[in-house]
Amino acid sequence: MQTLLEPWPWYIAGPVIGLMVPLVFLYAGRKWGMSSTFRDVCAAVAPGDIEYFRYDWRKDGGWRLAMAAGLVVGAALATTVLSGSGGDVAISEATRTDLTALGLTDFGGLAPTEIFSWGGLLSPAGLIMIVGGGFLVGLGTRYADGCTSGHAISGLSILQVTSLVAVLGFFAGGLIATHWLLPLVLGGAG
To answer: Using an 8 Å Cβ cutoff, are 70 and 101 in contact?
Structure first.
């Protein structure tokens, strides 16, 4: 029998996430996404002379900051208390073989430590993927006027055509990155 401390299957977790969108939309009357929350953090911490960050974040973004804090706490609980029995991440053998061919062999955590660790960050591949990728994600969310969660979860739920176009672009970019850029950056076979 499934318990709360075990990972939830997709057919339970997906609808739970999907049902949160109407609640947030009805409660706040706004679209939801993490890139706008990042703007709220910048406005709260150091607005400086940048006009984009000079607004009343307490009135407009306080609820998003509370939600982001809940996401951080939830992620911490999920990775420490609710991580199940530990051991390797459940991925298919074909994916494991492909990742091993690229030089990734640590499947014990949520992300490969060869890249996503302080040591991995200092490697050329780590710098390209974490720093370069982070820059491109930030640039893309600003250009697309929203992030993957905002467009895919919130935008699609209210039938925004622009969100559909953005999500198709996210998936195309993900496929390109997985099949062409990742092997190029890691120096493995593609």
So the answer is: no
